[in-house]
Structures are given as structure tokens and as C-alpha cells.
Design brief:
The chain is of the alpha+beta class and 196 residues long. It has six helices and five strands, in the order H-E-H-E-H-H-E-E-H-E-H. Strands 1-3-4-2-5 form a five-stranded mixed beta sheet, with helices on both faces. A hairpin with a 4-residue loop joins strand 3 and strand 4. Helix 3 packs across helix 4 and helix 4 crosses helix 5. The longest helix has 21 residues. The protein is globular, with a radius of gyration of 18 Å.
Length: 196
């Protein structure tokens, strides 16, 4: 199924929301079930835990957005964000808590960005964000918004402390390998940014 309209996250988020809603409706209805309700399958480009697009679709989105930025003479920035210490969180508090941290991070990243931006799960504990029509100063503002949102999520859900490392690369530094440059920037900053 190909979706031409809306941001790349839209098909994943709609499918994910429909499957969760069905489970909730059946669960809240009080009907005794003989078998667990099935979730509607998500497109293969979607992460089943978060409902976000996965790395291959994210890379296609970067290519498409770079083409658009060149055509319109605008900038874009890519942010990579890694949850630090997820393995320790899983060991000390259980995998359910680790999964909750991943889902909460995804949810609050989506809430932090604009509708035209893209959020993806690009690795086990790594997320990617495409900020369209954004320069370095705009990316810094977005990072501050994300930090506040993620701190709020951790506190509201009473999750154990964990931190994030981020990397940023913008098209004004060159269009080629913008994801790789953001990832390299994140690895250089590992453990020093966005302590929540």
C-alpha cells in the first residue's frame, strides 16, 4: 500500500492507533473473550512497538526531503537521538519498563515536532528526526523542546532516570550523508546531552 499524502509517519501511526484502539474497545467493553483480539498488521515499514517508521523508510524520507529542500532553496536538519543505558534499564527494572521508555520517547518526540517533520525508530534505542525548513538555530530550539518533553514524560510515567544523547546535521553543511553526519555527531557527544 502506498500513501502519497501526509508525512511518512502517517500510515504507521494510523495503523498503530487503530490496532491499539481495537484492543482497548474490546477490553473496555467487558465482553468475555475466548481469545485475545488480534492487532491489525502494520505495514512492513512500521515499528510494531512504537508505530513509527523504520530506518529504510526514514532514509527514503531524507532523500525525498533533501530533493524538496534543494528545489525550494530551504534547509533541513536531521537529529539522531539515542536512549542511554537502555540495557541497564531492562536488566534492573524489566523489559516492560524498557519498552515503556521506548514508547514514551516515541510518543513525546512526535508531540514535540511539527506536522511536516518526520520521526522514526532507526535502531533498538535510536530515533531519527527530520526537521524540514529548519536551520541550526531552529534545530537547537527543537532539541530544547524535545528535552523538556522527554523529561516530562519520564516524570509523568515515573520511569527510572535515563538519559539521551543526540546528534545534529543540517543541509547547510552539505546535503550528502546528513544522517551519517548526525549519527557521527551523536556518537561524539555520547552521554553528554539531554540528561533527563
Amino acid at each position: 500500500m502506498v500513501f502519497e499524502m501526509g508525512p511518512p509517519n502517517m500510515p504507521c501511526m494510523l495503523g498503530f492507533a487503530k490496532s491499539v484502539a481495537m484492543v482497548l474497545i474490546v477490553g473496555l467493553s467487558g465482553v468475555a473473550l475466548t481469545k485475545r483480539p488480534e492487532r491489525e498488521p502494520l505495514p512492513s515499514t512500521c515499528d510494531p512497538l512504537t508505530g513509527l517508521i523504520l530506518r529504510p523508510e526514514f532514509e527514503r524520507s531524507i532523500a525525498r526531503d533533501i530533493t524538496q529542500a534543494r528545489r525550494h532553496g530551504t534547509n533541513l536538519c536531521v537529529i539522531t537521538l539515542d536512549i542511554d543505558g537502555l540495557e541497564t534499564l531492562n536488566k534492573e527494572h524489566g523489559r516492560e519498563v524498557g519498552d515503556l521508555a521506548i514508547r514514551a520517547t516515541a510518543n513525546y518526540l512526535i508531540r514535540s515536532v511539527r506536522g511536516a517533520d518526520t520521526v522514526a525508530r532507526i535502531g533498538g534505542d535510536e530515533f531519527g528526526i527530520i526537521l524540514t525548513d529548519t536551520d541550526k538555530a531552529g534545530a537547537a530550539v527543537m532539541l530544547a523542546r524535545m528535552r523538556a518533553s522527554l523529561l516530562e514524560a519520564r516524570q509523568m510515567l515515573r520511569l527510572p532516570p535515563f538519559s539521551f544523547t543526540t546528534g545534529v546535521a543540517c543541509s547547510m553543511d552539505g546535503m550528502a550523508d546528513v544522517l551519517e553526519r548526525a549519527d557521527t555527531d551523536m556518537r561524539l557527544e555520547k552521554g553528554t546531552v539531554l540528561t533527563a
